[in-house]
Amino acid sequence: MSTLEKTADEIVITDVLIVGSEGAGARAALEASKRCKSVVVATKGVVGKSGATLTADADIDIDSRSAAELFGLPGDMNDSPEKFADDMCKEGEYLNNQRLVTIHCDEAPMRLKELVDWGARIDKLTHAPGHTYPRGVWVPGTEFARVLTKELKKRDNIKLFEHMMITDLLTANGCVVGAAGIEITTGKFFVIKAKAVIFCTGGAMRIYPHTTAPDELSGDGLAMAYRVGAKLIDMEFPMFLPYTLIKPDSLNGVDFSYLLSAYVQAQALNRHGERYMAKYDPERLEHSTRDVNSIAAMVEVLDGKGSPAGGTYLSLKHLPDNLIDFSAEWFPSNISHWRYGGFNMQDYLPDLHTQAMETSPASHFWNGGVQIDEFCQTGIDGFYACGEGTGSIHGANRVSGNALTMTQVWGPRAGIYASEYANGADSGNIDLDQVAAIKERLHAPLQRDAGVDPIALRKRIQDVAWNYVGVVREEKGLLKGLEEIKAIRSQLDQVYVSNKAKRFNHEWVEALQLENMLDVMEMVAEASLVRKESRGALYRRDFPKTDNINWVKNVVVQQDEGKIATSVHDVELDKYQPTREIREYGSKE
Amino acid sequence: MANEVQTITVKVRRADPDVNGGEATYQSYSVPLEPGSTVLSVLRHITENIDRTLSYYRSCRIGKCAGCRMVINGKTRLACTTAVTGDITLEPLPGYPLIKDLVVDLSAERGV
């Protein structure tokens, strides 16, 4: 028996390993299964019952003309993939990689067509802000989950591993040769040997205490990529959605209130009853952009004008009672009759005729991530990435509806190119010392009898992220945040899990997520510190202008000899060019 | 006392196939009833503050993924969107292989 067999509880061998099973991961797997003998999909949750895709509420963008030609929707024939790309670059404030944006817009219609051919039901076409033409084809996130799960099941050479938390990439001679992790249902330590690994692991919205995202999105993929030396780009641009519920606690991050504010004139109030949006966007007020609304709310809170729960109030009280009652009837189907998701909102909201909701911005999307090229390569042989948590496509901000497009265009590309690589590669040698060290690190919190509580530490990480690396950032706060990160990091080797059971031990999972959350927060803080301006989803209170003369640049973060290093790179501008000027934040061209 | 917090009893069916041959027992927890409590927020309170060994699965928290389906007071419901107003009894979804406590193997649903 070799040492690997003694060290690992289970060894799996495959051509391609895909980490993440939803929008991007499922599409990568479907393409890989056509080209490779064996494909393994590992997900921390349950296939079709986890991840951000199914929570999408939900339009998928393609150019309006293709929407008309391919699906008979009332699209505008004046639109084109080029015009879609132009809007992406405008919204991304020209930090997008324009080669990737061109591919994105060109391939989107064909990928949606495939999804529809597999049985996805599409509905109307919507025209969301940021788009010159109506481009949002309405497909609920749950429909993606249903169709993709069905397709995955049909392929005999795809093996699904659920409740599998991949914790580390395995490397040999500078190449990725597999991954290791814990099967949560059994507590077994797995080693998966793969000729190529694709990360479809999503964003890190859970580093913040308020988020619209599912619980499991703790940035594991971003942190693992960082720790093997991959480059991460645009990490200073986590996106926030305003007016999500902060009360009751059980509905923290639910965006019903945000959706509602799009249809009736709600008033955002601080603790003095002041309609504070008048200071930030006197014309559009609460109908300003998501970013400006989020930033305004957070400035009010930071200036001591927030609500008891640390948000601001969103009120309908100024509206007549019968208007409020009638609105429930004509609201769009996803929020009509005070129903949202599976909630009867009247069980959870105060009486809106007399009281306001307490709301807060919540972390909603991850614009930046692992830097990829047009073949989803990361710069490390054998390591590919796609979907949310990869950078270069959205730039500094994403247009509405483009998160789902990203999964459907880039998932297949990653599947294709990783398979081609795998078919020409030899199985790498697993470094036994590396595997042994990983196993020891993962099990250390279970073996300690006393120490730091992982749940308390997770809450501390989230508080630091919110207070210093959150919606509003400035140098002083970012430096304080980095100090806190250092202090928290010094406690990681004392984290102890009180539950010693190996089977479905969520306290252990929480402990294993801590370093990932911390690594991601450090990347956001360092990248934000470098960028001395405000742009897209990043607002620097101390540098409130958008500087298109000096800052049409990407910040790249990379680990160098165990330390975090940042570098600044000019964007290769091609067809789409910004006006070279310094302007007020939020006043787009 | 006007400010006294109402507490409820949460009875949970527990079983670990690794322990006592997987024999099931019911365990009761006393949990403060916060305004707007859901079954999921109650479970979160238990695992964060009372008993770290209790296992349940959840993802989206908004009634879309249906991963937190379980039997609540005898009826199959989603933990995340079911409001709690009094004592509750929680049991795992029947008809699926049990993983532990309230977690079942949902892959059976895909017919794999």
Summarize the structure.
The complex is a heterodimer of chains A (589) and B (112). Chain A has 589 residues and is α+β, with helices and mostly antiparallel strands. Chain A has helices at residues 3-7, 23-35, 64-71, 81-91, 98-117, 141-154, 220-227, 256-261, 277-280, 290-302, 321-330, 402-423, 432-447, 454-468, 475-489, 506-530, and strands spanning 10-19, 39-42, 59-61, 125-126, 136-138, 158-161, 164-172, 175-183, 188-199, 232-233, 238-245, 267-269, 312-315, 339-340, 343-344, 357-366, 369-371, 383-385, 390-391, 545-547, 553-560, 563-570, 582-584.
Written description of the protein model:
The complex is a heterodimer of chains A (589) and B (112). In chain A, 35% of the residues lie in helices and 20% in strands. Chain A has 16 helices and 23 strands. In chain A, the strands form six sheets. In chain A, strands 1, 2, 6, 7, 8, 9 and 18 form a seven-stranded mixed beta sheet that branches. The mean pLDDT of chain A is 96. Chain B is built from one helix and seven strands, in the order E-E-H-E-E-E-E-E. Chain B is globular and about 45 Å long. Chains A and B meet through helix 6 and strand 15 of A and helix 1 of B.
